[in-house]
Amino acid sequence: MRRLLLPLSILLLSLPVGADWYRSDALGQAGEPVENPRPGDEEYLLRRTATEGGVLDELFLEGRLIRSRFVRELPEGGREEEIVEGGERRLTLYRGGLPLREEIEWGYILPYMVTGILNEHPRAAIAYRETDDKDKYAEFYEQLLEGLE
Description:
Elements: H1 2-13, E1 20-24, E2 30-33, E3 44-50, E4 55-61, E5 64-73, E6 78-85, E7 88-95, E8 98-99, H2 110-117, H3 123-129, H4 137-148
Antiparallel strand pairs: 1-2, 1-3, 3-4, 4-5, 5-6, 6-7, 7-8
Helix pairs in contact: 2-3, 2-4
């Protein structure tokens, strides 16, 4: 029993002072506050720390850090969100509550992938992305197949 007390004491003393702890779900949504967290519990715990630069949320499961999320407010009402999970780092910029991707198309866009798989020029995908049905991927795929026949 004494063997467990020392490592547990060291772990509890290493927790940052001023951080707020919450019960959480797998998505990292803050639930009810937790007064005395036990990081080894078999549940999700969220540690929220406010810093000068923004807010850091760290999601723990069974005492292990599984996701880290840092949100920083930007000038003109925007914000930057950095997520580190499973060794991968994602950075998302928001303007007015929506991801900047909603205003500027960038990243992985399915119609371009479909034309590439079918070894076609992406002009069909470019034209389709300019229509009101730009997110109806199944219809785009069917139209593309009909054009190939």
